[in-house]
Target: RmlC-like cupin domain-containing protein
Amino acid sequence: MVQVKKYHLPPTRLIPNSPYPLLHYKGLLSDPSKRRPEDIHDTLDGNGWETQWIFRYGATQASHYHSRIHEAMVVLSGTATIRFGVADTDPDLDKSTWGGACEEGGVEIAAAPGDVFVIPAGVAHKTYNASPSAVFSLLTPGEGRGIPGPDVRESLAGVRLSGFTMLGAYPKDCGSWDFAVGGDDVRNFEVSWNVPKSEKDPFLGNAPEGILGQWGKNLGNMEVV
Model:
């Protein structure tokens, strides 16, 4: 049975977040035989989602959100902490990660191999404390906004994982992802709030445990905290 955890994240002064909850499918792909990137791609493709990248993460990154597109992330290897729902308040990554220079609120989740996150447009996220330690790097061909070449599946099969890695996917035909760090859409948060939900969940398809059931109603509190 799928273990679904959901988090309603209200908007902050800098981050729109979303009326839809952040979804965490804990250990959905914990069986290593189900974590081959090319097989994950097949599942995503069949549900109308496009695999666009595999990143190996470093010690930390800037908190950011995608204002006009939903995102699915799959943990392929390693462990890390992901902070959702709040912006950094200092450009110094040491201060914003370990020194408390971030907005109040949000949620921090320990990410492990096989975890899947479905992140609504507008929800901030920041990955840090990645282990094994490594240098941040894009492992797939291209620039992270799609995998070029005649055979995406073959490209994914050739990726050699190391450190903490995640695969990212987005609904097909919904444009490219942006990288908003907070404060970008103040007074225009509705742009993110009104992004339509996808026709199918990236992994659960039409199952009610996925976005078709979890995002069926506007249950979030959209008052700025």
